[in-house]
Amino acid sequence: MSHADLRLPQVQKLGQTSRTDVWWLQPLVVLLGLSAFGVYATWAAFQARDYFYHTGGAHYLSPFYSPLLYGAPHEPRWIDATLPSWWPSWMPFSAAFLILAGPGAMRFTCYYYRGAYYKAFWADPISCSVGEPKFRGEKYRGEYRLPLILQNIHRYVFYPAAAFVIVLFYDAFRAMWFTRPDGNGTEFGVGVGTLVLLLNATLLGGYTFGCHCARHQIGGYLDRMAGRPIRTACYTCVSWLNKRHMGWAWVSLVWVGWSDAYVRLLCKGVFTDFRIF
Ligand code: FES
Q1: pTM, rounded to two decimals
Q2: Does residue 213's CB lie within 6 angstroms of at least one atom of ligand 1?
Q3: Quick check: is 276 in a domain?
Q4: When comparing pLDDT for 159 and 133, which is higher?
Q5: Where are the beta strands (DSSP E) in the chain?
Q6: Bridge partners of 186?
Q7: Count of alpha carbons within 13 Å of 169, Cβ hemisphere only?
Q8: Ligand 1 within 6 A of 112 CB?
Q9: Cβ 238 under 6 angstroms from ligand 1
């Protein structure tokens, strides 16, 4: 058998490779998908209106504005004020500004997304055995120094993200209660919007509780799970979600954007909600 000495790292120009598959397709899809979501979410956050639909007895709150800390008196606000007293008068206010950093930090520091957007947005690494930008290749610092060492906050942002999921389930539960036609009290019902919000909370739950940190919190530091049937069941469940983490990440991202758009379009009167029963 013949041998050849290859010096590592092999010098390649950016994008140079002997691969013949469409290796560039996945980073391109990630680039377009995350960019589109980022633009839409930013636009929706700046709107500061059309986030709560309450026509026909429904109570649908956009997930981009939940929990609604400040809002109008008829909205499900948590604090009895329209906006914080400390908010600068010259700055436009949106209740979404106060909360989007929580789920945003969860996604930004997520182990899956890091691998995906490092490839898609700054090509480092761009893909296996494909040439990288030279200015980074010679001084690889990984995530051990600023600014990327800050990605380690992921294990802490998991907790507020989990709380957000609980709040979104509560919103879906509230969407099951419609104001009676005579205005006296509420009655149980299900509209299409109820299902949209319920599926949104479920998908975000699947993404959040399949997090690598959740897996570690539930059982990762135990040598043996024997004798702990409840924790074993939870660990198995989280591990099942974790294996499909990329799928949950994308489906939940698309659906949370659609949930906001659904409520927004209802508020604008583009279409009406269908009450199933
Ligand atoms: S690893 Fe993706 S949310 Fe934690």
Answers
A1: 0.92
A2: yes
A3: no
A4: 159
A5: 52-53, 60-61, 177-179, 186-188
A6: 179
A7: 10
A8: yes
A9: no
